């Protein structure tokens, strides 16, 4: 099992960061990798079990299912259902935010666990790492 973990301090408040990152359909609004997104079957983006279907700028599609979303704990957990361009199996990810009380900023952590073939390991780990890092950077920019 491979685990990727990224953490960041965002120079915005917890409330500002959560407003951006809690939107399960909002990736294209703050992340440079993604071009468009929609929630399948017209479900709300905060309904457990909803599936987001999004595309990167090369047209590659990814489908992910929302497993948990907590406004109290500021966390979101999801799994990949289908990602032909990302050779992973059993991918589950969680993002969590916490306030930094001394500065008013926000601490974010994002992890994923998945199976990946050895031949693809380094590339996939780098792509997932970059995805999480850029998400935090984009949320900090958009959340201001």
UniProtKB/TrEMBL annotation:
InterPro entries recorded: Polyketide_cyclase/dehydratase, START-like_dom_sf
Species per Swiss-Prot/TrEMBL record: Halomonas salipaludis
Domain of life: Bacteria
UniProt protein name: MxaD family protein
């Amino acid at each position: 099992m491979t685990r990727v973990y990224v953490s960041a301090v965002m120079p915005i408040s917890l409330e500002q960061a959560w407003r951006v990152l809690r939107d399960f359909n909002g990736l294209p609004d703050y992340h440079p990798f993604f071009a468009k997104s929609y929630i399948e079957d017209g479900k709300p983006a905060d309904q457990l079990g909803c599936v987001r279907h999004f595309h990167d700028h090369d047209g590659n599609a990814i489908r992910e299912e929302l497993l948990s979303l907590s406004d109290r704990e500021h966390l979101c957990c999801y799994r990949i259902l289908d990602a032909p361009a990302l050779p992973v199996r059993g991918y589950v990810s969680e993002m969590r935010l916490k306030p930094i009380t001394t500065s008013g900023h926000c601490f974010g952590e994002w992890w994923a666990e998945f199976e990946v073939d050895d031949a693809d390991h380094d590339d996939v780990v780098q792509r997932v790492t970059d995805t999480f890092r850029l998400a935090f950077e984009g949320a900090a920019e958009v959340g201001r």
